[in-house]
Design a protein that fits this description.
Elements (H helix, E strand, L loop, with lengths): L4 E4 L4 E8 L1 H17 L4 E12 L1 H16 L3 E5 L3 H9 L11
Parallel strand pairs: 2-3, 3-4
Antiparallel strand pairs: 1-2
Helix pairs in contact: 1-2
């Protein structure tokens, strides 16, 4: 199991990596909250291309990150959502809430 990380580059991309599973998402959310508080960007792309393993807590994390971003005045688009996570979103009937990049 790889520890998740979040970094924002100078192109306005927040890159998530590692495993987004129940035991890992709470510390990652705290890290993302700090990044959102520090960013000057009004728009960010949340890139999930380097995420390895996911479970339903990854979906909860995404929804919470979207809310926290709104609180910081940042709009998010989600890039490279895995089929597994998209399936969880569909099963949970929240796919339409996710601002997926075209």
């Amino acid at each position: 199991m790889s520890s998740p990380q979040a970094v924002i580059d100078d192109q306005g991309v927040m890159q998530l990596s590692g495993d987004l599973v129940f035991a890992q998402v709470t510390p990652l959310l705290a890290q993302i909250e700090r990044l959102l508080g520090d960013t000057k960007a009004e728009h960010l792309v949340l890139d999930l291309s380097r995420v390895d393993d996911v479970d339903s807590s990854a979906l909860a994390l995404l929804l919470e990150v979207m809310e926290r971003a709104r609180e910081h005045g940042v709009t998010l688009r989600i890039r490279s959502l895995s089929e597994a996570l998209l399936g969880i979103a569909r099963l949970s009937n929240v796919e339409a809430l996710l601002p997926l990049e075209a």
